[in-house]
Design brief:
N-terminal domain of TfIIb; binds S-adenosylmethionine; 12 strands; five-stranded mixed sheet; globular
């Protein structure tokens, strides 16, 4: 699977198979974890904005709890197209919008703004990180909180083993192959997806496209230092999916800011 017809922007060609690529991710447990954090830090929260919501799985799962009014946004129109299709199937009331999280434009304010699954790792520069915090501040109600997770260098080094050469095929629909690498010096984690869409009748290849995702991997200290340059204070830095403090060996850290 080396020859590709086109190289597409991140999260465009992959949108149609994203949920299959992520089929091992336990979004329900992740939703419960975000709900726990909300109960812990802002128990009367009702209005929620999700940034980088992808195909909307988390927002739809959160809506099932019947406690929140949710707006969910993503920079990729293709991911939002899939999110809306899923929302229509369950008569969801979530407002799904295509939006760059560095230019948040909604005529509403929120108790909680959150983003999950290392979406902040798509920010490669400190000033972009600061801009994200400033944008979120504009749409938070007084006392509101901002929750996001990031993945650590330790996680990238470990994850390469199962991410690199990951592949899957669904006859009559698609095949994908992932190459994953981590450069410890630049701390750039690269995932290259080669996607073949197949003809339903005989599984012959209809088109082959490629997407490259590059994430910058930060340490806890680097993220804390960036936050110090914003108007937010850190309420907690949690380890993984626990309500316990993050530490030097944490693979994923969830920040709760006010
Ligand atoms: C790893 S996916 C996570 C998606 C979703 N949160 C999930 O858990 O499945 C990262 C998402 O971040 C989005 N993204 C990356 N940069 C963005 C930006 N500047 N503005 C808005 N969304 C962005 C991508 O389109 C993609 O959907």
């Amino acid at each position: 699977m080396n020859q590709t017809d086109t190289v597409k922007p991140p999260y465009s060609a992959i949108a149609d198979i994203y949920d299959e690529v992520m089929h091992d991710v336990d979004y329900e447990t992740w939703t419960d974890y975000i709900d726990e954090i909300i109960l812990q830090h802002h128990p009367y929260a009702t209005d929620i904005l999700e940034l980088a919501c992808g195909t909307g799985t988390m927002a739809l799962s959160l809506e099932e709890l019947d406690c929140y009014h949710i707006t969910a946004t993503d920079g990729s129109a293709d991911m939002i197209r899939i999110a809306r299709e899923k929302a229509n199937q369950v008569n969801s009331e979530i407002d799904f919008l295509t939006m760059n999280f560095l230019d948040i434009n909604v005529h509403k304010t929120f108790d909680i703004v959150f983003m999950v699954f290392d979406s902040v790792n798509y920010l490669h520069k400190d000033d972009e990180f600061i801009k994200l915090h400033n944008e979120v501040k504009k749409v938070l109600k007084p006392g509101g909180i901002f929750v996001y997770d990031f993945t650590t260098p330790r996680n990238s080094r470990k994850a390469i083993r199962f991410l690199n050469n990951d592949s899957k095929a669904v006859e009559g629909r698609f095949r994908y192959h992932r190459e994953s690498s981590f450069d410890g010096k630049t701390r750039i984690h690269t995932n290259r997806f080669i996607i073949q869409y197949l003809n339903p009748s005989d599984s012959s290849v209809r088109s082959t496209t490629e997407e490259i995702h590059r994430q910058k991997i930060y340490t806890k200290e680097e993220i804390e230092s960036i936050i110090q340059q914003t108007d937010f204070t850190i309420l907690q830095a949690y380890d993984g999916f626990e309500l316990k403090p993050a530490h030097q060996k944490s693979l994923r850290i969830t920040m709760v800011l006010q």
